[in-house]
Amino acid sequence: MLLPLTHGKTELIEVVRITDPVRHLSSENLAGDTAAIWEGDQAQQALSLIADLPGSELYRCFLPG
Question: Is the pTM of this model over 0.70?
């Protein structure tokens, strides 16, 4: 999966659970609760796993129910 070239510099990832999934995902006031905060090695490990996902069609997305 393609990630920005700067993903190797990431120090923190805030994982957010969207609490109002009816809203459009690009909405500026999308509501959610912080589910986890990954820092340092944990953030790098998560991004490495994501980067190792195979490429696919452009319509592929990750939107769990």
Answer: no
